Amino acid sequence: MRALSLPQARKLVLLSQCISTKSLKGSAYSETLNVFERLGYVQIDTISVVQRAHHHTLWSRNPRYQVAHLDQLVADKKVFEYWSHAASYLPMRDYRFSLPRKTAFKLGQQSHWYKKDHKLMADVLKRIESEGPLMAKDFVSKSHKTNGWGSKPTKQALETLFMQGDLMIAERKNFHKVYDLTQRVLPNDVDASIPTEQEYGQFLVLSYLRAHGFGNLAEITYLLKNIKTLASQALNMLLESGDIKRVIINESVYFACCDALFLLDKRLNKKQVHILSPFDNLLIQRKRTQSIFNFKYLLECYVPAAKRQFGYFCLPVLWNGKLVARADCKVDKQTNTLNVIHLFIEPSVNEKETFFTALEEKLQAFAQFNQCNHYAIQKVSSRTV
After folding, report:
1. What InterPro entries does the annotation carry (predicted)?
2. Which of 36, 53, 282, 330 is 20 to 30 Å from 88 at the Cα level?
3. Is the dihedral of CA 118, 119, 124, 128 positive or negative?
C-alpha cells in the first residue's frame, strides 16, 4: 500500500482535475469538451453575481473557454443536462449511466421531490409531442388559475418527466429550460442500453477516481442515493482485478486508479493563480477540501448577512498548489468593473509579493471573462490562525 504525502495528494488532485496543467492542443471548443469528459460533470447554478458556476468551472480549466461553447456543445449533442449530485451538464458519452436513476424514478423505486400527477404528465407529453420543444412559460393560461397550464403543478410535471427520462433539455433560452421528447434530443449513435448493476457500480467508482485522483466510499457516493452497496462491491472487484489500489493519505485509506499515480511524474504549474467557483468540482465536498487542502470553506450567500465571516460570494483562490485566499467578488455592470469587495489572505502565503503579481494577472483575465473592462480590490485582510 503506497503512502502519499499531502503535497503529493494535492498534486494528484489538481492534475486529475485539469487544473494547473498546460493547455491542450486543438481548438478551444474541443478542449472544453475534453474538460467535460475528464471531470464527468459540471454543476449548474443560478447565482450570477459573477459568471455562473458552470461557465466559471470550465474557464478555470480552459483559459480559452467562451460562454458560447456550452450552448454549442448542447446543440451538437455532446453534453446534456441531468443530475449528478446536483443539477449538472454531463458528457453525452456517459448518457447510458444516467438511465439507472431515471428508471428508478419512473418505477417509483426512488422518491422524487414532486408527487406524480399522471394525467397532467400525459397532457404535457402530448403537447410537446405535437407542438415541439416548449418551456414552462408556454403552458401559462390567461386565467393563471392554480390548476391551469401555468400553475406550479405544470412545472412539477415537466420536471418529473425530465427526471424519469421522458423529456430532456433541448436548450436554454435566457437560462430557461426548453423541454423536448428524449428521442428527439438524443443523437442517433448514442448508447442507450441500461447498464448492469456491475457496470454501473464500476462506472461510478472509476469516473470519480479518474476525475479526483483518489477517493473513499463516502466521497464516491456523495449525495447519491441507494448506491453505497453497489459502489462497495465495485471497489472490491476493481481491487481484485488490479485496476485500482489502496493508498494512505494523512493516515486515512483511499482508493486510486493504478495509472493515475503516474500523474505524479508530471509537472504542476504552481505559480499560476486560479480563482475557483464555490461550486467547482475540486471543492464541492467541503470535508474533503478541509482534509486534503487544510481549507475550511463555507459558501455564505445562504448565511444571514450579519453572520457572514467572509462575504456573500467568496471565491476560493488556488496558488502554489494550495488554497491560499478567498475573494468576495461581484460584477458591477454599470461601471463594467469586477469588484473584489474583500480579499482574505491565508497565513500560509509567505511570498506575498509574488502571489499578488500572479493574482493581479488572473484578476485581469477573470474581469475580461466577466465582460468587465477592469477590476478593483477594495479591501485586503490577512487571516490569522
Report:
1. AlkZ-like (IPR009351)
2. 330
3. positive
Length of the chain: 385
Measured from the Cβ of residue 362, the count of other Cβ atoms closer than 10 Å reads: 18
Which residue ranges make up each domain of the chain?
113-185, 274-382
Cell of 336: 463594467
CA separation (Å) from 340 to 110, 322, 326, 344?
43, 20, 10, 10
Half-sphere exposure of residue 13, counting CA atoms within 13 Å on the CB side? 24
- Assigned C-alpha cell, 221: 457516493
Number of CB atoms found within 10 A of residue 305's CB:
9
In angstroms, the CA 199 to CA 195 distance is: 6
Give the DSSP H/E element, type plus range, for residue 152.
helix 152-163
Strand-strand pairing, 2-4 and 244-249: parallel
Mean pLDDT of 317-340: 97
Beta bridge partners of 275: 317
**CA atoms of 215 and 302, how far apart (whole Å):** 28
Amino acid at 259: D
> Could you report the per-residue pLDDT of 275-321, keeping only the tens digit for each?
999 999 999 999 999 999 999 999 999 999 999 999 999 999 999 99
> Residue 329 is placed in which grid cell?
467578488
User: In this structure, is the dihedral angle defined by the CA atoms of residues 282, 283, 285 and 288, taken in order, positive or negative?
Assistant: positive
